[in-house]
Amino acid sequence: MEGTSPLLAGHELPTPLDSPRKRRRAMRESDETEGDMTIENYIYRSDPYRSTTLPNTSPWPLDLEDAPHLQERLRPLEDEVRKILDKHGFPKTADFLPYVASKRHYPGGTPPVNLLLVWLRADDYTPKELSPARDEFSQLFQIQNILDMHVEICNRDLCFYPSLFPLRPDHEIIKSYERAKGRIVDVVHERLKTHWKVVCPFSIGRTEPTALPAFVVIVEPQTFCELA
């Protein structure tokens, strides 16, 4: 179940996306990312490249198991799925496939569930709103009496899925951290109480060449606090 047809020559392309940083900044400045919530909910709500019906918004990566029985079950709906993607401006290159998804070893994580996953990649056009298509898929499954299928739309290259890389000891952010360490720890402790584990400068990103230096606060899963 995948669409690999190229865009036709002369096809009017959608308005280019803002950069990932601009999109995330817009989310951070919205009401959706303010108030009391778990760190997992904050990460999910701040991420414009992921939309899911999963009840537990466990961070990526999820464990995905191939599910041929689900593929056969949804095969009659392939055309309807593609129509929904086209209606909401998704590119022809968007892939979709059902999996059994889980994150069983993550505290409060996702037990095994059936999941239709719509994949996008970095070079794909990503609609600014993913939830309308997600909700229409859910409605389609309800009409077809498929009541055990969750839906997730995700740009696999741009969604929040970072790695931490060490910094050189002489990096400027290390020097800044040493000068302000006491104040940083005081602020972190005031906001997170005893739920934080480590605060340390790292280079953070998907890959080391594209990673950027930042102060990273590592917290316990399901940490609940006021975030703004």
TrEMBL record:
It comes from the Eukaryota. Residues 1-39 are annotated as: Disordered. It comes from Helicocarpus griseus UAMH5409. This is Uncharacterized protein.
